[in-house]
UniProtKB/TrEMBL annotation:
Its cofactor is Fe cation. One of its GO terms (molecular function) is dioxygenase activity. The keyword tRNA-binding does not apply. Residues 54-159 form the Rieske domain. This is Aromatic ring-hydroxylating dioxygenase subunit alpha. The keyword Oxidoreductase applies. Keywords: 2Fe-2S, Dioxygenase, Iron, Iron-sulfur, Metal-binding, NAD, Oxidoreductase. It comes from the Bacteria. It holds the Pfam family Ring_hydroxyl_A. InterPro entries: ARHD_Rieske_2Fe_2S (IPR015881), Rieske_2Fe-2S (IPR017941), Rieske_2Fe-2S_sf (IPR036922), Ring_hydroxy_dOase_asu_C_dom (IPR015879), Rng_hydr_dOase-A (IPR001663).
Length: 375
């Protein structure tokens, strides 16, 4: 959010607080809950993940000469930045028999498979292997790591999970609204865990404040308000919900308002990346389908927007724990309960006018897979 955007959003939110409202959809919407449980829909979802670009990391998580591994919709991915700042993505699968050639993250100029020690350079080229004479007649040039489409725009890394996925324009529609210096962000921590709910439910919990006074009565509600604004950017979207302290700006001239929105700004980056922007922190919550319709896998990265000393990092670690507890102890518990409801016969659901982004997100998912399931 640039300053102009921040001022505009602050104005809108203050007006909403004054009239005790939020920005709404034109009408409520009824949806079939089969999208969360049916095997056919799950298969279509997985196909969508295979053919659509995904935002998977902040560029600053991978410094020059470093690498990072990710599992994205079950696909093992290796991201490597060379000394010339060229970032590449590969399928993290050895050309010999398919094992991973790297684990975790760190600094590395060579990637040696732990199974039979085939070794690759930062461009994915096979450069050494024991017993090469036993592979006579096989062209060594065909034994490199398999490259994946990759694009780094404004400090966010977008990849495709197979050749031919067009990644370059993926964020174009939302780019002006993503005015953050992501390239300066510093990594604090990463967590990965499963959730016993369909991946779409795990995305949904991040995009409405209707539940704040109830589900988050003791945690978020004492600080935050549900008088939120929302904006659509093609398939992507964002909402901004204020902290209660935003009321203090009401009597200040706008040119004295801070550059940063006094609240949380949450972006949905199609198809399942959630970016949570706070004053000093940024969270990337990536949500993938799990092994069946009732399971999701979550990747949670917590970043600081600038350098921090040890004491500050320790304080931010408490913030990361708070965010983690809020998600895993409250939101994802509710998502898992919804999943149980759908699996036991709750066959349709309704989205209120006060849940406009859920309406948008479900619409773009349905359009993307060519399957609109209204009930
Ligand atoms: S599977 Fe990698 S060296 Fe054999
Ligand atoms: Fe929540």
């Amino acid at each position: 959010m640039n300053r102009e955007d921040t001022i505009d959003t602050t104005r809108r939110v203050l007006d909403l607080i004054a009239v005790k409202n939020l920005e709404c959809a034109p009408s409520p919407q009824r949806l079939s809950s089969s999208m969360f449980v049916e095997a056919e829909r799950f298969e279509r979802d997985r196909e969508l993940f295979a053919r659509t670009p995904h935002v998977v990391a902040y560029g600053s998580e991978i410094k020059r000469g470093h690498y990072l591994t990710r599992t994205v919709a079950d696909v093992p991915v290796l991201l490597v930045r060379d000394e010339d700042d060229i970032l590449r993505a590969f399928l993290n699968a050895c050309a010999h028999r398919g094992a991973c050639v790297a684990h975790g993250a760190g600094e590395a100029h060579r990637f040696k498979c732990s199974y039979h020690a085939w070794c690759y350079d930062q461009t994915g080229k096979l450069i050494a292997r024991p017993g090469a004479e036993h592979f006579d007649g096989i062209d060594e040039a065909t034994l490199g790591l398999k490259p994946l489409p990759i694009s780094e725009m404004k400090g966010l890394v977008t990849i495709g999970l197979q050749a031919g996925v067009e990644v370059d324009g993926h964020l174009d529609s939302v780019a002006p609204a993503l005015a953050y210096p992501f390239e300066n962000y510093e990594h604090l921590e990463t967590r990965e865990f499963p959730v016993a709910a369909n991946w779409k439910l795990v995305v949904d919990v991040n995009f409405e404040g209707y539940h704040f006074p109830f589900l988050h009565k003791q945690s978020l509600h004492p600080f935050a308000l549900g008088n939120a604004s929302f904006d659509l950017f093609g398939r992507h979207c964002r909402w901004a919900f204020p902290m209660r302290s935003i009321e203090e700006l009401r009597d200040l001239p706008e040119d004295q308002w801070p550059d940063c929105f006094d609240g949380t700004v949450v972006y949905f980056l199609f198809p399942s990346c959630v970016l949570v922007q706070g004053a000093a922190t940024s969270q990337m919550i990536r949500i993938d389908p799990g092994s069946h319709p009732g399971e999701a896998r979550v990747h949670f990265s917590y970043m600081l927007t600038g350098p921090a000393n040890e004491e500050e990092r320790a304080l931010h670690a408490q913030g990361a724990q708070f965010a983690n507890d809020l998600l895993r102890g409250e939101d994802f518990v509710a998502a898992a309960e919804c999943q149980q409801g759908f699996e036991r016969g709750r066959d349709s659901i309704v989205l209120g006018r006060n849940e406009p982004l859920l309406q948008h997100i479900h619409r773009v998912w349905d359009e993307a897979i060519g399957m609109v399931l209204k009930s």
